[in-house]
């Protein structure tokens, strides 16, 4: 079912040399690794965008974990009906988005890889593509963070390791997949180490309804995306207590400051401006007014159950990220003996896991 | 009705020399000029605070524009029942808050003046106190801005002029009067030129539920309080169009950036950090999710009427500030030939006053 029309344009050099965005010998070729709700939304944006840009090949491959939907293969549905009926129903891709059930095949000849799958799958996925990906640059859309004994581990660094040193940029911002897919205006931020790669991903994504800024700060951008879920717990506590907008605004402000402080404590090269980009302020605001972490924390404040019970009742099988990150953050801060420098993170942890009354959220 | 218990402590030198906060010859004496909703809320905070701080005299005078409520003078009600039943019903002052119908009398012996009245009343009020206020420092809680042909005029500078060069700090932040009065946790920011004065006002106001930060940037803090109302129109347009949280978060982020740019264009000494304080980010978030400017703009987007009709229908006699500021801002920016550098402010003006469809808010 894959369109072969454009494959002729794709030379083997394109896959093995780092192309400059304009004026190179070949064109950029994008592969999207993942096809859930967010992966499908971004596939819609990328697929449409590349058709109007000379420097990109039209065909965009998307690796789809094959499954059956109403007796048909999901890849076949996507390639025939141009819609991911399971994870992004009601939204049409441009026909140049080609679903592929084999990740190695999907990444063939790609110069730009977009990682948008749960990070738990990186370990089994990357070995299948690393051999074909020399000279590629990667973009991670994966939100989350891992922790070791010594501190936080960035998902982008995990990808870099798995992909034998590939340069990895990240994309974070105030963007709910369904809103992006419906072309509601929103913004996003590319964090990059190598400017030409940041520029290339910006060109791939930016369009009038999805405005993409960029900043030379991978760690800052990525940490904004992870720590916002902790702050959102605090915002949810406020909602559960029916406190006013002032209190929540204060939580958001202090949360952004602690996020910045955390980033600077564990990583170098963090930029102050990062926290004023979409990935910082805007994403945090969105998450603290919508989002599942806020919702579950509101239920917790209303004493509707334990975290596990609330997750089961409210999230329809999805996982609550904020509580996991909250625990990990506090473990790392306490190991370093600096928890007192993060009064909001500490207070949220005390309320979520140490039995402190929710009302104490206002006494920072 | 004024408590005279403590007047003996008040020496004439206290009124004519600038006291240092601690270790001076006398104690600080606070006078509040204004007694509306916000003035009364802050009177509750200040009245309670000074009782626990040695460096302040207990008595806090509040100038009240005399009026009759249920056949009694409002000042008598306040001094007997310790409640401003007209503008902040249901909230009790500590008894050391003394209402006074004569502004000259109210400011007698004061060392710290708190201006919290509509700025239109400054011209007729200040001449009555300027002679008694040598050596005082002032704090303005007045939100708003005026414009001349050459640019914005700060309310704090208007007070300074009226008061013959008195040093004026400002207080702005995410604080709705009724929430502050109910001791719901919130934050605020003092912007100062003279650090010792900023410290004094911070000490006067800060308490566990009303956390006050300070920063050496009067103009930046004050402009945050004025321009947020313009941004809130954009947020209201999003709500009226039923756009998602992403879009509103983007409006807030861009609005904060344009506020910073505007401040730096017209004033010197603006600090980047100001926009991350409560007066910046937190107040803007609150205003864009609650507040009357947002509410009226939502109605405008729903085509419920002209601005005048909406104001009459929704605001119960109060005035819509954002539309006035929006017009003035655009006049000033166009006179300077820089409107294109403020795409959000410009777009909000085009929608509000130039007939552009509201849907264009998303095409920045």
UniProtKB/TrEMBL annotation, chains A, B:
<dbReference type="InterPro" id="IPR036291">
    <property type="entry name" value="NAD(P)-bd_dom_sf"/>
</dbReference>
<comment type="similarity">
    <text>Belongs to the NAD-dependent glycerol-3-phosphate dehydrogenase family.</text>
</comment>
<feature type="binding site">
    <location>
        <position position="177"/>
    </location>
    <ligand>
        <name>NAD(+)</name>
    </ligand>
</feature>
<dbReference type="GO" id="GO:0005975">
    <property type="term" value="P:carbohydrate metabolic process"/>
</dbReference>
<dbReference type="InterPro" id="IPR017751">
    <property type="entry name" value="G3P_DH_NAD-dep_euk"/>
</dbReference>
<dbReference type="InterPro" id="IPR006168">
    <property type="entry name" value="G3P_DH_NAD-dep"/>
</dbReference>
<dbReference type="InterPro" id="IPR006109">
    <property type="entry name" value="G3P_DH_NAD-dep_C"/>
</dbReference>
<dbReference type="GO" id="GO:0141152">
    <property type="term" value="F:glycerol-3-phosphate dehydrogenase (NAD+) activity"/>
</dbReference>
<feature type="binding site">
    <location>
        <begin position="292"/>
        <end position="293"/>
    </location>
    <ligand>
        <name>substrate</name>
    </ligand>
</feature>
<feature type="active site" description="Proton acceptor">
    <location>
        <position position="228"/>
    </location>
</feature>
<feature type="binding site">
    <location>
        <begin position="34"/>
        <end position="39"/>
    </location>
    <ligand>
        <name>NAD(+)</name>
    </ligand>
</feature>
<dbReference type="InterPro" id="IPR013328">
    <property type="entry name" value="6PGD_dom2"/>
</dbReference>
<dbReference type="GO" id="GO:0042803">
    <property type="term" value="F:protein homodimerization activity"/>
</dbReference>
<feature type="binding site">
    <location>
        <position position="319"/>
    </location>
    <ligand>
        <name>NAD(+)</name>
    </ligand>
</feature>
<dbReference type="InterPro" id="IPR008927">
    <property type="entry name" value="6-PGluconate_DH-like_C_sf"/>
</dbReference>
<dbReference type="GO" id="GO:0005829">
    <property type="term" value="C:cytosol"/>
</dbReference>
<keyword id="KW-0560">Oxidoreductase</keyword>
<dbReference type="GO" id="GO:0051287">
    <property type="term" value="F:NAD binding"/>
</dbReference>
<feature type="binding site">
    <location>
        <position position="121"/>
    </location>
    <ligand>
        <name>NAD(+)</name>
    </ligand>
</feature>
<feature type="binding site">
    <location>
        <position position="292"/>
    </location>
    <ligand>
        <name>NAD(+)</name>
    </ligand>
</feature>
<keyword id="KW-0732">Signal</keyword>
<dbReference type="Pfam" id="PF01210">
    <property type="entry name" value="NAD_Gly3P_dh_N"/>
</dbReference>
<feature type="binding site">
    <location>
        <position position="321"/>
    </location>
    <ligand>
        <name>NAD(+)</name>
    </ligand>
</feature>
<feature type="domain" description="Glycerol-3-phosphate dehydrogenase NAD-dependent N-terminal">
    <location>
        <begin position="29"/>
        <end position="195"/>
    </location>
</feature>
<feature type="domain" description="Glycerol-3-phosphate dehydrogenase NAD-dependent C-terminal">
    <location>
        <begin position="217"/>
        <end position="363"/>
    </location>
</feature>
<dbReference type="Pfam" id="PF07479">
    <property type="entry name" value="NAD_Gly3P_dh_C"/>
</dbReference>
<feature type="signal peptide">
    <location>
        <begin position="1"/>
        <end position="15"/>
    </location>
</feature>
<keyword id="KW-0520">NAD</keyword>
<feature type="binding site">
    <location>
        <position position="143"/>
    </location>
    <ligand>
        <name>substrate</name>
    </ligand>
</feature>
<feature type="binding site">
    <location>
        <position position="65"/>
    </location>
    <ligand>
        <name>NAD(+)</name>
    </ligand>
</feature>
<dbReference type="InterPro" id="IPR011128">
    <property type="entry name" value="G3P_DH_NAD-dep_N"/>
</dbReference>
<dbReference type="GO" id="GO:0046168">
    <property type="term" value="P:glycerol-3-phosphate catabolic process"/>
</dbReference>
<protein>
    <recommendedName>
        <fullName>Glycerol-3-phosphate dehydrogenase [NAD(+)]</fullName>
        <ecNumber>1.1.1.8</ecNumber>
    </recommendedName>
</protein>
